[in-house]
Design a protein that fits this description.
CATH architecture: 2-Layer Sandwich
Strand order of the largest sheet: 4-3-7-6-5
Largest sheet: 5 strands, antiparallel
Structural class: alpha+beta
CATH class: Alpha Beta
Distance between the termini: 33 Å
Strand content: 15-25%
CATH superfamily: PAS domain
CATH topology: Beta-Lactamase
Radius of gyration: 17 Å
Number of domains: 1
Order of helices and strands: HHHEEEEHEEE
Helix content: 25-40%
Shape: globular
Length: about 180
């Protein structure tokens, strides 16, 4: 085999493995032989939200969910042009079985059970987020593809809060390369 063909094949296999690892951020649908990446769907703007801003944002979303109809809340959380997408922050929602209830940038994941999906390092990140939410709220670190930074795997800090005994909300911020 020619070295160029091997490199393209390895890149394709690695890309497919990353997608299969459970990424929730928009990712290219395919990798073409020319190695160009197709334009991604609209994604959260690159930014530098702080940990405190993220926590405040999730608390606001939780209060909203607790004071509004669940279906209306989920529709608002899934609306990429809605009030719960701000810069690089957005809200996602899951039930305690790991089923995605709302996601503004990956609507195809709504209704999908992701409890056994792993991050880029093999960690059951949805399980860990869910477990933190079961305790009321909490932080979870994981490794995830950042669409705002050329789809590189980066450290991500997620913060979650329990809405009620059926479901929970979260958001996250990227904070550097995986070492």
């Amino acid at each position: 085999m020619k070295p160029g063909y091997i490199a393209v094949t390895l890149l394709l296999v690695l890309s497919l493995l990353l997608v299969a690892a459970g990424c929730t951020q928009p990712a290219p649908a395919t990798v073409t032989p020319s190695l160009t990446v197709p334009a991604a769907p609209a994604a959260p703007a690159a930014g530098s939200s702080t940990k405190d801003e993220m926590v405040t944002f999730v608390k606001e979303a939780t209060a909203y969910a607790q004071s509004h109809d669940k279906n209306a809340s989920l529709a608002e959380f899934s609306n990429r042009n809605g009030s719960f997408v701000r810069g690089d922050l957005y809200i996602y929602a899951y039930d305690f079985n790991g089923i995605t209830l709302a996601h503004p940038f990956n609507p195809e994941k709504i209704g999908v059970n992701r409890i056994n999906e792993t991050d880029a390092l093999g960690t059951l990140f949805i399980t860990n987020l869910r477990d933190a939410a079961r305790n009321g709220s909490g932080f979870v670190e994981f490794a995830y593809i950042n669409p705002a930074n050329n789809y590189t795997v980066e450290k991500k800090l997620g913060y979650v809060e329990k809405v009620d005994n059926d479901w929970w909300l979260g958001s996250g911020i990227y904070f550097g390369p995986v070492t």
